[in-house]
Amino acid sequence: MAFTLPNLPYDFNALEPHIDARTMEIHHGKHHNAYVTNLNKAIEGTDAEKLSIEDICKNISKYPVAVRNNGGGHFNHSLFWTVMSAKGGSPSGALADAINAAFGSLDEMKAKFNAAAAGRFGSGWAWLIKDASGKLAITSTPNQDNPLMDVAEVKGTPILGLDVWEHAYYLNYQNRRPDYATAFWNVVNWAEVAKRFGA
Ligand code: MN3
Question: Using one digit for the tens of pLDDT, what is the confidence trace for 8-43?
Fold first, then answer.
């Protein structure tokens, strides 16, 4: 069974002005699509064809680098599209409690996340993760790695992620990655983050 490019759960222009339609169109239709195509090529005829993308990530050290790069790319972008929506808002309930317990406040969590996004040299991702004990933490990964991977420095279940590759923001923000990270908070789909936190 080959992996497929998931549909965006909203229109290309849904996240404007924070993320522009042209960026979304290229990012989903070209970049994510290429990760899916190349992942399928890299696992063709192997046992990995029968696995979920999560299970592939968890044992990524057993696979060739093409699976790490493209499998990570597929998992990361699939998560990224779902944790955004036009609605915005703020976390509530158990997720809000866990954020306050781990970081002191939502603003402190955002500041730490944005610092992780800005501090990732080159290309990569910033993450809010749930660790094995259920506690929240902020981390970042290079390239298309993610915290599910057995090679990750800090491991956990990603519940929110921000793509900080230049292809994710360059058309609208050029070199201003911190402005993009700040704008991201206007389009976070907290209901989806809460769902992933509760899973
Ligand atoms: Mn990307």
Answer: 999 999 999 999 999 999 999 999 999 999 999 999
- Measure the CA–CA gap between 39 and 33, rounded to whole angstroms: 10
Query: Residue 57: which of 161, 155, 148 has the closest Cα?
Result: 148
How far is ligand 1, taken at its centre, from the CA of residue 35, in Å?
Answer: 10
What residues does the ion ligand 1 have nearby, CB within 5 Å? 31, 163, 165, 168
pLDDT < 50 regions, the chain: none
- Rounded-to-integer distance, Cα 179 and Cα 189, Å: 19
> Residue 97 C-alpha to ligand 1 middle, in angstroms?
30
What span, in angstroms and rounded, lies between the C-alpha atoms of 96 and 56?
31
pTM higher than 0.90:
yes
Query: Quick one: CA torsion of 26, 69, 141, 159, rounded to 10 degrees?
Result: 70
**Tell me: the pLDDT tens digits for 121-136?**
999 999 999 999 999 9
Cβ–Cβ < 8 Å for 163, 80? yes
Beta bridge partners of 136: 130
